[in-house]
Specification:
Length: 100
């Protein structure tokens, strides 16, 4: 099944814009370990959702290694997004996977 980019984008905007979240301006960043905080992955929320839909797999994020930020390639606490949590992102992806 091919992904409908516009439908996914519309779903994300409908779910997140009421929270003041722009899915294009929030990034899910991952570090290799909590000691060095070397970034190993950084995607916009939209890219992250599309990635998991393409894989057909629901994510399970580790709170210590994954975070939501207002900039790519960072784990700076000052840039952390506070009005969205990782379980909410997991839920959005799960809902979209179930709709397929």
């Amino acid at each position: 099944m091919s992904l409908d980019f516009e439908a996914v984008n519309a779903h994300l905007e409908q779910a997140l814009l009421p929270l003041g979240i722009d899915p294009h301006a929030v990034f899910l960043n991952q570090i290799a370990d909590v000691i060095g905080e070397q970034i190993v992955m950084s995607r916009s929320l939209l890219e992250e959702v599309l990635h998991h839909l393409e894989q057909g797999v629901e994510p399970t994020y580790d709170q210590g290694l994954h975070g939501l930020f207002s900039a790519p390639e960072t784990f700076d606490a000052a840039l952390r997004v506070h009005n969205l949590r990782l379980p909410a992102v997991e839920r959005v992806i799960r809902d979209l996977l179930e709709q397929r």
